[in-house]
Amino acid sequence: DAKTTQPPSMDCAEGRAANLPCNHSTISGNEYVYWYRQIHSQGPQYIIHGLKNNETNEMASLIITEDRKSSTLILPHATLRDTAVYYCIVRGYSTLTFGKGTMLLVSP
Amino acid sequence: SQTIHQWPATLVQPVGSPLSLECTVEGTSNPNLYWYRQAAGRGLQLLFYSVGIGQISSEVPQNLSASRPQDRQFILSSKKLLLSDSGFYLCACRASAQETQYFGPGTRLLVL
Question: Which among B96, B103, B107, B110 is the top mutation candidate for probing chain A, defined by the most A β-carbons within 10 Å of its own β-carbon?
Fold first, then answer.
């Protein structure tokens, strides 16, 4: 599976949009981009995934560049409960490989 | 959608004691099942995965083993725990017709 690069930490003010970047320059054509988050002491929570097109659901939006070498997870109106570690994962056949993720701190 | 149960939620065990963690899944049949471990301050590491009853693949050599006696039951075991086995153990499930893995609530293990 391709590796991903994420900033170790980010800050966001409550109510503002949180834009979390991820680089995956070695992604191959059949690999999906997945985003999970992990709130302290809980299991990872699935957020969204995509292959080529931008995706949106009730939690977030995923913007994938045309060359698929990077993506951005957007939380449109961050709340304090969105404070968590966010993992960007490129998934191949079956397994997920988690990196260190981005610690997003949403503050009042 | 599937529901993943793990127990116990927390466990404190002495070094050298045996271990059995259980994961059960509801709401799907013939899922892929996974065991991950997260050591303190570190990322998730895949330990085992299973595509069916009795089929186990190990990702890393270690002091642990896994078994899948039933379609929706996945067990993580050890005969003798080490201090380094401490961590947060997570079971995950991927339904056969889906792309996404979903995680259970986890078991926090402390070996003393």
Answer: B103
